[in-house]
Automatic annotation (TrEMBL), chains A, B:
InterPro entries: HTH_MarR-typ, WH-like_DNA-bd_sf, WH_DNA-bd_sf. Residues 9-139 form the HTH marR-type domain. Gene3D superfamilies: Winged helix-like DNA-binding domain superfamily/Winged helix DNA-binding domain. This is MarR family transcriptional regulator.
DNA sequence: CGCCGACACATGAAAAGTCATATGTTCACC
DNA sequence: GGTGAACATATGACTTTTCATGTGTCGGCG
């Protein structure tokens, strides 16, 4: 008799979380090797190529962090010289410094290479997967 | 002219993380309404229907938490009467108390209902999606 | 104009997570 | 059987996140 499938092994939200975690694991290891924390990387990636910068709120949403967490992360990144704040009315615009932009460029290149390798291992299904993930994200 | 696609908007790892986050959002809200933190839920879900319990290490892996984090989470859950530890040689076996099992049952039922609704919205693609996620998880 | 509610962000105290390491256990090998 | 390496978990110092709330700004409306 086969063991009945345990709930957690077929639960969609668990599969999503585990897939996300597993897929990111080795890239995250490379980040750590370079001394870059995951939240820092997310901000850099989000700001990469965003000429006009972004607001704290926008960064929070796309990086999946709460607003106070983001504020404090930005404190540290500013202290490290990666970005600068500019108050604009009631919102704060965040822009990378040249140091931050250089780091972002370098990491984005590495991420792209890593992604390409991952996609190659699921070549047929990849476009459909991305589309499906987008659908889920859109609700 | 269309804006060039920003890196982060087409990056697979970001899509996975965002999809996972978005898909979980309203269930997590229900957990919060019941006063249950997400890591607590994950442990309950993992232990649900695991007659023999699990070890700290196993829980850490399936719940995507590091071992010291798990140890301390288990401290709190034990203090709340949700589970009990039993040292077995060099490992510690974790089993739900009846209180914990009742809570787990209730939450798992709610999670199944929530998942069913989500799957219904992506009926055709769901099996393929799960298969793909499993492939990613397996590396 | 002046006021009030909504908004965007910052901050302080408390909780949770992380990193390094300590403790206790098993296993292989001599 | 004793010793040392690998394992499984626990714990302590420190960092990050969270929750609640504070501060400053815009918007509409009397």
């Amino acid at each position: 008799m086969t063991t009945p499938p345990r709930f957690v092994e077929d639960y969609l939200l668990a599969l999503l979380a585990q897939a996300s975690h597993a897929a990111s694991a080795d890239f995250h290891a490379r980040l750590k090797a370079r001394g870059v924390a995951v939240p820092v990387w997310r901000v850099l990636a989000t700001l990469h190529g965003a000429a006009a910068g972004a607001t704290v709120g926008q960064l929070g949403k796309t990086c999946l962090m709460q607003q106070p967490t983001m504020s404090k992360l930005l404190d540290r990144m500013a202290a490290d010289g990666l970005l600068a704040r500019t108050r604009q009315g009631r919102q704060t615009r965040i822009a990378l410094t040249s140091t931050g932009a250089a780091l972002a460029d370098s990491l984005v290149a590495e991420a792209r290479a890593h992604e390409a390798a991952l996609l190659a291992r699921h070549a047929e299904a990849a476009p459909a997967l991305k589309a499906l993930l987008r659908a889920i994200i859109s609700g």
